[in-house]
Structure formats: C-alpha cells, structure tokens
Design goal:
alpha+beta, globular, 12 strands, 24% strand, 6-stranded antiparallel sheet
C-alpha cells in the first residue's frame, strides 16, 4: 500500500539541503526518497481460543489455541492485553448478538466457556480475525459455525459491503456492525483507498477489518462440554485435570 503524505499532519518536517524530506517521530529521523511513504506489511491475524490444526483429522487432533495467540512469550502477553483492552467492545457486540440471534448466542456462549484460553475475553465468539489493510474479494467463510460479526476502523474512502446473494450494497463505515451468516452468504468489501497523511500518534492510514467468528468444528467439539473443558483436557486428548 502506498499513499501520499500530508505535511500538515506531520510535526518537525523539513527539506534537507539535498531536497529530500526528513521526518522526525518518536526520537528517530526518517528520510523519504520521494513524496510517498514506503509500502507497509499487510495480512490477517487469527486469535482463536480453540480450533483444530488445518489438514489434521479432527477426531485425533486436539483443540489448540491458534499460533497467533501463543507464538512466543511476548506475543502471548500482547494478546492477553489486547483481549482485556477490547473487552468493552466485545461486550457490546455480545449484546447485539444476543438480541439478534438468541439461539445461536446460547450455543456460542456454552462453547466459548468450554473452549476459552485467555479468560480476559468475554466471548461468546471463539475467534477473531484482524484483517490489516487488505482488499477483500467475494467469498464465503465455509468453516464458520453460524453468525459472524464484522466491523472496521481506520482512515480510508470506499469500502462498502457487498452481499451478492441478496443483491445488496451497504454503507460500511467505522462504527457500523454487521452480524450475518458469513458461511452461507457471499460477501465482499468494495475497493478502498487510504486517505493521505499520518496521525499524530504515528499511525498510517488504511482500512482494518475485524471479524468475530466461531469455527464450526470447534462449536461441535465443545457442545455439551463443561466450562474450561479444553484447558483441563489438553484440548480433549488428556484426562480431565480438575
């Protein structure tokens, strides 16, 4: 992703004697070769409390937290902080879900309590996907167990939500929330473009998508299980520890 800078949003910026631009932020000086920022990394992070490794037989493989949850000690700390920090957001989404899909909510809640790994997360979805500055083409999330909540934030233009099966094009701005059967309905995000500039906190513009979901296989494996069952059985392959 490349975007034009807005000098009025950047403090302590000046052209050097050679005509190149210097940018001071956080005690470091950055130099740009032209009027554009360098491209930044994009991708998807999956924070899932309990799911099966892809390509493994689910009858023989234990439920595990996603690798993005426990990649190393520092990541594990950051994930716990993130889930605690976003707890008010998750509670708001949970209330929306409870009102709009009450039967699914109860199933998800029970499965979450059985499969939870980081207990700072209030649930009821077992997983979150953070879609960092990617364009989203038409697709179905065929491995999801039911309703998914999606919302976005960032600084961008465009990015409408398309539901081709329903012939719908919806406004989809930061603050909007959609809860729908993402495994049944094709959906896409219209092309978006980052707005110019960098925030005062040094955050680059673009669109960040957030997806709250529960994998179907996890939902089925955790149904009728007691709270913390996955933790207390090593994902279902060890004797109950407590």
């Amino acid at each position: 992703m490349r975007y034009r800078r807005r000098p009025d949003e950047i403090a302590d910026e000046s052209a050097g004697e050679d005509g190149e631009w210097d940018f001071d932020h956080g005690g470091l000086t950055y130099r740009f070769a032209d009027e554009y920022e360098s491209s930044e990394r994009t991708g998807v992070t999956h924070l899932v409390h309990a799911w099966f490794m892809q390509g493994h037989n689910t009858s023989k493989s234990p439920l595990k937290p996603s690798s993005d949850m426990i990649r190393n000690a520092q990541v594990a700390q950051a994930v716990q902080w993130y889930l605690a920090y976003t707890r008010p957001l998750a509670l708001t989404l949970a209330e929306m879900f409870k009102v709009s899909w009450p039967m699914y909510y109860e199933r998800y809640r029970a499965a979450f309590e059985a499969g939870v790994w980081v207990e700072d997360d209030p649930g009821p979805w077992l997983g979150r996907a953070i879609v960092w500055k990617l364009q989203v083409l038409p697709h179905r999330d065929g491995l999801d167990g039911g309703p998914t909540a999606i919302f976005c934030f960032g600084s961008f233009t465009g990015g409408e939500c398309y539901l081709p099966d329903l012939k719908l094009k919806l406004q989809y701005l930061p603050g909007d929330v959609l809860i729908f059967l993402s495994g049944d309905l094709y959906h896409a995000v219209g092309e978006w473009k980052a707005t110019p500039g960098i925030s005062a906190q040094g955050i680059t513009p673009g669109r960040i998508g957030n997806v709250f979901f529960t994998p179907a296989d996890s939902l089925h494996a955790l149904e009728s299980r007691p709270p913390r069952w996955s933790k207390n059985t090593g994902g279902g392959i060890l004797p109950l520890s407590s």
